[in-house]
Every structure is written in structure tokens, then in C-alpha cells.
């Protein structure tokens, strides 16, 4: 609900645009479109038409065109996973990630995992980065090294005690190679499992399978670390029980040993020395317990924790939440053409070879994040194949934030398809079209043509969409709070 006091807080231009949109003849249809996107902050605009045809007769059962839509276009959700860019779509992404991780912990036959996986050995492991220099922190009940006991929201947390001696180059190079560290960890983990079981690697693979789902998270200091659910399965994956030797203790020991073995060498370049990148010593491995046994590391708690960080990125450290590299050269600093006037041979004329498309000094970000981003840009010419400038807004990290092994559980694509099928079924029912699942002979043919026509909102539309998203979230939270009471009433009635 929007009141006069809220409207009074808007600037004149935004208020005028709000009144224009709300007073338009097709406002109700615009509002319906935005509600269907969940209040998306940056909807995609599409122009086109569709026809649903009965193949046997050629009869057009339904026709739709965006000509009659507000502005002559259809608005669909952007699908961005970042909460800082689109809270609505990030909420959907987090929900999908939650169900994906949960299905690999408690089991869900509809998502490819039986309920018997609750009996498989499972751990929640956290692999962190090493130290690149002392930072302000909250070490238990003690004061920080600086002598101050920082509150939880202190802005200096995670920043170096002495920025001049902090290894900014090492920090961004570590982030940049974090995915390779994880890849080697999964290789060594299988080897360490076979070693502890007294088997060859081939025999271990024939008797067991290691499945995992992981998510990346940024620490306050700007270093990436990984949270992973790691599970022992039988040779056929989650449908088969693990062998007797595949115990929780063996898995835990193998994880520690594998993490200690991982090493990625980075050759020297310019003024940068050769480096050997490793995992940090703060490796945490905890068994995942069943829901309701009093343990904090429960199945649902783990799924919720992973889903929470699947929608966050480097902006949690204060870094920019959008790319800052030069779009002309994609951050390489080199031109795809060698005949650009006014530039050195092979140098991008747009960014003058820096690979940077934004002035970092003008960004309203903390100094620590700015120095990490600047380190990415400075290292770009030394390690051109690492695309550091292109990923400066991610502090060098260039991997996927959420990944899983093939047999852990379902996929995000499958979850999206279920949602799309459900909406399609709703649409068929509303239009009175036949359902091919009920009558295979009633199969219809849909012919569609769509064209991209832009994205985003005007200032007034953006404000209205944010209010729609807020109301949807409020209704969801209210329904969630009412659910336990309704279940208690049902139980009492029974």
C-alpha cells in the first residue's frame, strides 16, 4: 500500500512520472505484467506475437500480439540472480537453489534423489583463502589486534591493519584461480578416498561416488571461500547405498588431506614473483544431521545458508556490482584492429590500453575494495590470459557461484522448466485450450516470433515496481507466519 507520506518523499520528476503511469488508461494491464514478474527491477521488453494452432485442421485456437499491451510490449522477468540488482528475480533464484541443495540432503523422488540419501554420509565443508596480511576482525571475546573490540557492523572489519603491506596482488590472483583450486580439490579428494579405503582409484570409482553442491561467498576482506555439501553415494549415485567402508570419518579425513595437497603455481610476471596458491588453514568440515535432532548443522539450515549466498557477490564487500572494464576491448587493453588512429600498435584506443572503462577514483566504494579492483587492472597486462580487468568488479573471481556434481540432485534448468510448465498449464486452462497430457490427440502447435525491444523502467515505473515487489514479499511472509497456526488447527481437528 502507498500512502501520501511515501509519495511526498519522491523528487518532482519521479513523482510526475508515477502520476503519469498510474493515470494511464492501461495502468491495470501494466500492473498485471509487473506482478507476473514478481516486481522485477529490470524487466526485459519483448515485441511479437504467438498463434496456437490445431495441426489437424489448421484452425487458429488462440492468437496474441503485444500491439495491445502497454507501450506495445510485453515485460518479462530479467532473471538476474543478484539481490543487489533485482531482489525479485534473486528471490526466485535463491528458492531454486534451496530446493536443489535440499533435494540432495533429504531426498525428493521428483528431483532425482530418493529419501534413502539421508542415510548416506554427508558433510558441510568450508574451504577458505589463506592470509594476505592482518585485518581488523572480531576474534571471539578478545579485542582486535588494533586494540579495539569492533561491533558486528563496524565498517573497518575485514580491512587491512596496514594497507601498505597488504598483498593485494596475491589476493586477487587467489580469487582468480579459486575455481582451479576447487577443481584440483575434487580430483585429490577422490584419490585420498581410494587411498584410505585401500583401493585403487578405479576400484573406488566402481564402488562409490562422491557428489557435491557448492556456493561461493565473499569474506569481508574480499577473499572468496566455498561452502560445499559433500555426500558419499553408491556406484549408481544417490539411488544406491555407499559401501560399508565409505564412512563419515573416512570422508572427513579425505577432505582434509585433499585440501592440504592442492597447489596451483602462478609464474612470475613483471614485478610479480612466482606464487604457489593454496587453500587456507581454516578448513571446517561438519557432519550434516537430520532435521529435528537438535544440531545446528541440519539439512534445512544448510540448504537455507547456501541459498542465501547464491544471490550475493562481491558487492557485499563494498565493490561495484557492475563490470568496470572497457567494453570495446573486453578489458584486455588490446584492440581487435591494428589500424586505429591515435593508438599504439595493438592498443585499444577507447581505454588507452588500460582495459578500464570506469574511473575507479569516482566510484563510491570503500578504499579496500577500490584497491582490490585497482590491483586487477594493474595485473591485467602481466597476466593477459586471466582476464583480471574484465572481472575487477568481482575482485578477480571468474568462476560460477553455484555449481554441483552431475548426480547430486536435480538441475536449476529442470526446476525452471517445472515452473514454466505450470504456468503454461495455467494459461491453457484460462484460455480453454486442450491439455495434451489428458488427450494426446489434442496436441497443439504454437508459432511465435519475438524481438528484443529493450529493458528496464522509467523512474516512476521503477518506484511502482519496487512497491509491488514489497507487497508480494509482505504477503509471502504473512502466509509463512500463518502456516504453523493452520497446521496446528488441522492437527487439533483431526
How would you explain this protein's 3D organization?
The protein is globular and about 65 Å long. Helices cover 35% and strands 14% of the residues. The mean pLDDT is 89. A five-stranded antiparallel beta sheet has the order 9-4-6-5-10, sandwiched between helices. Strands 1, 2, 3 and 11 form a four-stranded antiparallel beta sheet that branches. The chain has twelve helices and eleven strands. It has helices at residues 4-8, 12-22, 27-36, 87-106, 168-176, 178-197, 201-207, 248-261, 299-309, 367-379, 412-431, 459-493; strands at residues 44-54, 59-65, 74-76, 122-127, 209-218, 224-233, 264-266, 275-277, 284-287, 402-404, 445-455. Helix 2 crosses helix 12 (459-493) and helix 6 crosses helix 8 (248-261). It has a domain at 87-132 and 167-319 and 397-404. With 494 residues, the chain is of the alpha+beta class. Pfam families: RepSA. This is Replication initiation protein.
Task: Tell me the layout of helices and strands.
Elements: H1 4-8, H2 12-22, H3 27-36, E1 44-54, E2 59-65, E3 74-76, H4 87-106, E4 122-127, H5 168-176, H6 178-197, H7 201-207, E5 209-218, E6 224-233, H8 248-261, E7 264-266, E8 275-277, E9 284-287, H9 299-309, H10 367-379, E10 402-404, H11 412-431, E11 445-455, H12 459-493
Antiparallel strand pairs: 1-2, 1-3, 1-11, 4-6, 4-9, 5-6, 5-10, 7-8
Helix pairs in contact: 2-12, 4-9, 5-10, 6-7, 6-8
Pfam family, one: RepSA
Protein name: Replication initiation protein
